Amino acid sequence: MRAVLQRVKGATVHVDGKLVSKIGPGIVALIGISTEDTVAEIVPLANKILNTKLWNENQQATQILVPPQYEPESSPTANEDPPSSTTSLAASNGEAPETTNARAEQVWGGKPWKRSVVELGGEVLCVSQFTLFARTVKGTKPDFHRAMGGDSAKVIYEALLKKLGDGYAHDRIKDGAFGEMMDVSLTNDGPVTILLDTAEKK
Amino acid sequence: MRAVLQRVKGATVHVDGKLVSKIGPGIVALIGISTEDTVAEIVPLANKILNTKLWNENQQATQILVPPQYEPESSPTANEDPPSSTTSLAASNGEAPETTNARAEQVWGGKPWKRSVVELGGEVLCVSQFTLFARTVKGTKPDFHRAMGGDSAKVIYEALLKKLGDGYAHDRIKDGAFGEMMDVSLTNDGPVTILLDTAEKK
Questions:
Q1: Nearest to B44 by CA among B174, B154, B165, B160
Q2: For testing the chain B interface, which of A71, A84, A89 should be mutated: the one with the most B CBs within 10 Å?
């Protein structure tokens, strides 16, 4: 199995324009399953997703400024602010070094690579992504022969979701819409993008 | 070199809340450079980015509905619509199969994996991402020893940008902010995410 982990300030999944999932600070995990994979890959992959240290030692999910489109729906301003509101606010501060440093301190304070998503108190949005096993070394058309087909892949994918929930908290693990055409929107924080492959040797 | 290609409807890069780059439909390419890489990797990687067929045979960049936050600044509504406007509009159509199929036809009409970003008439946003060479198989803290350091990596990264521009059009190739803390926002269309690695054998 492969996973692309993106450290995000927030993310959403829409299908046919309808919101199906939303998270605040945490990880968007694109999940690819190959024809050679079995349920044996689930535990090590779930552990890597939950335990890999992507945040700074003193960061907490509640400290991270969430772009308005990813705010929880209970927030009264979540659907009223234009997406550029945060931008405008920060941009209006100009180039003043104090402001910049203060923000950098808030975001980057403490040693990096010290806290996992669990330690951060963040969320995980999993999205199935069969294209991670695309073979592209020959020609220009991706070859998907190594990607496991829908029904078999879904069994393994859903077992991974359950294992993530068991290892952390079921209400912190969100899902896209397996096999559907999705719009996956996110704000990658850094950016920080980590590639996991259970076939890689220690 | 490694690249994570995401097929997007649009994307932005902000640094300290300030917009530094924006694209419409095309590719966000996260670029990782290892200590073993040389300029020899640039041509094959640039060719893969420009020529890999990620869109359907009849798709054009101008047909793809761009989320408002990624619209060009010349558009009068670009910064006025809340991020949920497209969602609300589509959601109000309910579950009517005609509407859903019409949209699917618009998005997915024709055979898939037929058009490259060049054939689509799309844009490419490159963002340097040293974490793509993170080693994660041992322990929980990513090990970045295989990632090439800043100054040397920047030379190769900028040569890649130039090669992409030479191979397509310089005004269609956008950049993030090398080495800066960025917010990389995007809407992945599908999602479609492709992993490229120049060390992979044919």
A1: B160
A2: A84
